[in-house]
Specification:
Elements: H1 15-18, E1 21-25, H2 29-38, E2 47-50, E3 53-61, E4 68-74, E5 83-93, E6 98-105, H3 113-133, H4 136-140
Antiparallel strand pairs: 1-6, 2-3, 3-4, 4-5, 5-6
Length: 147
């Protein structure tokens, strides 16, 4: 599996680019979006807990760009407030079908080791959860037949 774990863009781009986390995963875009939309929620039926962080729905669908977005509250440790972020979900390539995940800070952030560790851990946990949540026909490449 090809996996971009750099966490930051090289060069002197915008601060949000340097503080964003990117990951290319070997799961089709439609499967990722369907899994996120159908996952059991907690709280006010809009929150999905991934580790100590929260994904806060509903998912926004940008019909022009094809990007899906969902709000995130990134946990950075027990004494730190949750950091508002946005998770962009995009198609990456075909074939094989891949999905690009990008975690972007919404507010100013201090680029500490805890921040980068937390961002990578969230994307690791989300990627693992998406792989486990895939329907059987997506894993085996066959369509489920109606009985």
């Amino acid at each position: 599996m090809k996996n971009d774990r750099s966490g930051m863009s090289a060069g002197t781009g915008r601060a949000a680019d340097r503080l964003s986390f990117r990951r290319i995963i070997d799961i089709p875009f439609e499967t990722c979006v369907a899994a996120l939309e159908n996952w059991p929620r907690t709280g006010k039926d809009t929150e999905l807990r991934i580790g100590q962080s929260l994904l806060r729905g509903p998912i926004e669908h940008d019909r022009d760009s094809g990007t899906c977005r969902i709000g995130v509250r990134l946990a950075r440790g027990p004494l730190r407030p949750l950091l508002p972020m946005r998770l962009n979900i995009d198609r990456w390539s075909w074939p094989p079908a891949r999905t690009a995940l990008e975690l972007i800070p919404c507010d100013g952030v201090r680029p500490t080791a805890a921040y980068f560790r937390s961002g990578h851990l969230l994307l690791d946990a989300l990627t693992c959860a998406l792989r486990q949540h895939r329907p059987a026909h997506a894993v085996h490449g066959t369509q489920a037949s109606a009985a």
